[in-house]
Amino acid sequence: MSAPLALTMGDPAGIGGEIAVAAWRAGAPAFFAIDDPARLAALGAPVAEIDHPAQAAALFPHALPVLPERLPKPPRPGAPDPANAASVVASITRAVALTQAGDAAAVVTNPINKQALYEGAGFAFPGHTEFLAHLGGIERAVMLLAGPQLRVVPVTIHVSLAEAARSLSGAAITATIRILAAALRRDFALPAPRIAVAGLNPHAGEGGAMGREEIEIIAPALDALRAEGIDVRGPLPADTMFHAAARARYDAAVCMYHDQALIPIKTLDFDRGVNVTLGLPFIRTSPDHGTAYDIAGQGVASPVSLIEALRLAASMAQARAR
């Protein structure tokens, strides 16, 4: 990886600044923050303002490189302020532009507060992922949660369980798995990825006795993917997919709804999970937690998930370069 990683500001009232400083102190892969230098310096970091990402690598061993994105108002921990929303959005936009130009190796995002962005910046997207897809000019992005012991993708994400069942389709399953398989080959250096796919119902429908989605939706989608040469296994009962011996038989698991995917990975290793957006024309990772307003400013926030996000972004960039 020749270029440094671009770390976004996140909500300045949250823990993003604290964990950025802690990640720098812990010797994370070289990154520069697109942030307000004054607020990071106030957190105790030696800060070096830069004009271009190319300056970051030489400075990183001695100071935290910061490409300035100044805040109109000093942030107060735990109190999101719409007045700073435009700077938060600009930090994301600049990180994407620099990465697409090749000046940064990947985008690593700190957590945001969507309500503050709605109120202060006219933010028109449900969240980070949709905004990044817009910036990347794509219609569909896929959320991968990656940890040391498991990679998992939900087909449906932030909808009710009833809506997840109603909206599940073969087209959504095949599109998700195609994006996942391509990313595993390109960004995770897995030339022949093995993908396990969960059923929707208990016991994967028990042959239709507990639901027919496996027969009518999931299995035909997997047959189509196998015909394309993608190694997919399933639909499998979700309750037997995540023990150690089962995990050894695949490289990533695809689940039908949010909690079916996120419960196992957060149970296995809550602190080291990383959120990865697949399908973008650039690499994006993020710590798998929120703004943590309840502990912001107390100096107790763990940087572990951010460090893992930085490490994974660097590894993905190296794999993509190869």
Explain the overall architecture.
This protein has 322 residues and is an alpha/beta fold. It folds into 2 domains: 1-141 and 272-322, Isopropylmalate Dehydrogenase (3-Layer(aba) Sandwich); 149-268, Isopropylmalate Dehydrogenase (3-Layer(aba) Sandwich), CATH 3.40.718.10. It contains 12 helices and 12 strands. It has helices at 16-25, 37-41, 56-59, 85-100, 114-121, 128-136, 161-167, 170-187, 213-227, 244-247, 258-268, 304-321; strands spanning 5-7, 31-35, 47-49, 64-68, 107-108, 142-146, 151-154, 194-198, 231-236, 252-255, 274-278, 284-287. A 12-stranded mixed β-sheet has the order 3-4-2-1-5-12-11-6-7-10-8-9. Strand 6 and strand 7 (151-154) form a beta hairpin. The termini are close together. The model has no long low-confidence stretch (mean pLDDT 95).
CATH superfamily of the largest domain: Isopropylmalate Dehydrogenase
Query: Which H/E pattern describes the elements?
Result: EHEHEHEHEHHEEHHEHEHEHEEH
User: Architecture of the largest domain in CATH?
Assistant: 3-Layer(aba) Sandwich
Tell me the helix content: 25-40%
Extended strand count: 12
Summarize the entry for a quick read.
This protein has 322 residues and is α/β, with parallel strands linked by helices.
Question: Tags for this entry?
Answer:
322 residues; alpha/beta; Isopropylmalate Dehydrogenase; 2 domains; twelve-stranded mixed β-sheet; 12 helices; 16% strand
